[in-house]
Amino acid sequence: MKGKFKVLLTVGLGLVLVVGGSIGAHFWYNYTHYLSTDNVELVADFIKVTPLTSGKLLEFNVKEGDYVVKDQLIGRLDAGVDSGAASNIRAPISGIVASKSALVGEYESSATSPTLALIMDPHKIYLIANIDETDIAKVKIGQAVDISIDQFKGKKFTGKVSSISQASNNAFSILPAQTSGTFTKVVERVQVKIEINNSDTKLLPGTNAIVKIHIK
């Protein structure tokens, strides 16, 4: 019995070492070859639709979700003496109307540059990943990225690092830096822009994602 017990114990310890070694090797490989974070958001550049002249809004013929092409006539102002082409409102880019705030009948003043609508290009949605300052040196432009988007469970996307911010998020904060009292050191984060490779999936700006950057 003692002999069998020793054999079983030896086999058991061997399995533990093998499994533990495999797990350790897996984590070591991922740590040295990838940089992962879930502090990621899908982003689009929203272009404002604003009138070129002041006047009463007579027409605004698009709604949220409509697709428009650049220079398409989408609205019209009663500009008084400034009539003609100047009173037309045209789409600044081709894309989807993401939001609309224009109300027919309102007076719109070009001096205040009112936002009548926001348009985004659905083919130019990208990711902003917030990387800890302690890890940012590992990130280089052009590195491949594996992407998981929360909205699409199980579907994998790919991309690449396209730019790295030259300052931490805190540098752009509207709040002044702490100058008195107890100082608490926190890890700053740096924004990394990631382009998504060609995708036929409808992506929604503002949703969350997880990225794994190939650092080796």
Automatic annotation (TrEMBL):
The entry's keywords: Coiled coil
Residues in Multidrug resistance protein MdtA-like barrel-sandwich hybrid domain copies: 47-119
Name of this protein: Efflux RND transporter periplasmic adaptor subunit
Domain of life: Bacteria
Residues annotated as signal peptide: none
Protein's cellular compartments: Cell envelope
Residue ranges annotated for the YknX-like beta-barrel domain, each copy included: 129-213
A matching Pfam family: BSH_RND
PANTHER family assigned to the protein according to its UniProt record, in alphabetical order: EFFLUX SYSTEM COMPONENT YKNX-RELATED (PTHR32347)
